[in-house]
Structure formats: structure tokens, C-alpha cells
Request: fold
Amino acid sequence: MKTEGEWNGELLAQLSQQWASRVIFFDECGSTNDEARKLAQKGAAHEALILTERQTAGRGRRGQAWACIPGKGLACSLLLRPSAPPFLWSRHALAAGLAVAEAVESLGLSAMVKWPNDVWVHGRKICGILVEAGEDFVIVGIGLNINDANFPDELAYPATSMFLETQKSFCREEVLIRLLDRLQIRLSQIDTTFDELLSAFRKRCALTGKDIMLEVNQQTKTGRVEGISSNGELLLRTSDGLEKVVQANMIRILSSHAP
Ligand code: BTN
Reply:
């Protein structure tokens, strides 16, 4: 199986008939999330996948930049037209993080999800996910470090890649197909079968049992994570009691009290 080089459409087609027909490939673009939004506004179908080799303006959460080395990583966005009502759409983030962790694990790494959707391997970030919504669509943008051998020093967090964790190069097309297959399963669970998603997510939640500091609405809070609520919120025990955190910026682990 090929492990290096440009994205190979023929290989993608061989690996998955189902997905190959939905891929919209750009040699280069600003951000796949932006391309997905433009295509959504022009009527593109549910599960169109925007894939690129080079992003010139890749975006992360909180307005940060996201860099993906051409030929090494994965930068893609999945356009969804959910049948679930908009108040459930934040669950796409949990589903996507879990799906990435499961896909990475199916290739021999052990991966955890740092709520809501960063994927971590051995305390280092291997994948970032940017979920954005429009009026009648959701975009799940995924940046996964696959064959990267090094990262810029100025990153705000310790980063890793599948290559760095295993000393093996991976076929990016195969990683992508595994990821899409897990995504399809987990994204289908955001509504009536959310319990199934939650129970798998809880087993991989890197924050449970940890003392953390996070920022909510420009306020810093500290507390111990007791788990994930039945709606997917982070359960944080603070000096004021048990709080349900819906959304947070900058989550930092202070110490571990897990058994
Ligand atoms: C984060 O951890 O801050 C989220 C990073 C998300 C990066 C991906 S790469 C593909 C898609 N296009 C973007 O511009 N961002 C997401």
C-alpha cells in the first residue's frame, strides 16, 4: 500500500466506491471549511467531502491558524445536511472526535478524546476538529496529523502524528476511508441513539477525573471533571458545585486524580 505522495483519487476509488463519488478535491484552497460553506450555499448534497492537499488559510478554533503539511496530513471537511433539529447539532463535535479516535485506534494507536473533540495520543494532540453551522447545514472540518515527522516550535500545544507514534508511514487514503466509515456510524447517533455515542465517548474521555482550568465566556474556572452529562456537556465540580459546561475555550489539565 502506498504511504507517501499526493492524494490518489484512483486509490481512493478502489478503497471505497461509496466515498470516492462524493469527494470534491482541491489541489490547493484557503480552508476546506470555507469551500464547504460555499458549496453548501450552492446546494451541494449531504455528505459531500471537501479534500485538499494544501490549505493556505487553514483555520482552527478560537481564530487560530491550522497548518497541514502537504503530502503528510489530512485536511478535509464533511458537509452535512442533518435531519436532527439544530439544538442537537453541537453533538456533531463529540461524534467527530470519537470517530477520529476510533479510526486512529483501528490502525494500532491508542487515542483519547479531549472534550469536546480534540484527539490526543499519549498526551499530545494528533487531530483538531472545527465544526461550523449554517442555516441548514453543518460542516465538520478535520485536520489529522498522519505522516508528519515534525511540527513548528510555536504550536500552542504538544503535537504528534500517527508516524511519530508508531515510526510507520500510513496510506492516507486508507486512513481517510476508515475515518469516513467511523464518522458515518457516529454521526448517525446524534439523535435517537445518542446513548450509544455517549457511552463510547465516556470511555475515551481524556478529561474525566482530571483537575482542569478552562475559560467560559471570558471567565476562568477551575474544577475536577466528573464526566460527561446525558446531553454531552462536561460535568465540572467547582467550589460552587457541579456545573454543566456546554462550550469552553482553552482547556488545560492541571493534575490527575483518576483512580
Ligand atoms: C482546532 O483544533 O483548532 C481545529 C482545527 C481544525 C483544522 C481543520 S483542517 C480542515 C478544516 N479546514 C480548516 O480550515 N480547518 C479544519
Observations:
- DSSP finds seven helices and twelve strands in the chain.
- The first strand starts at residue 23 and ends at 29.
- The domain at 210-256 is CATH 2.30.30.100 (SH3 type barrels.).
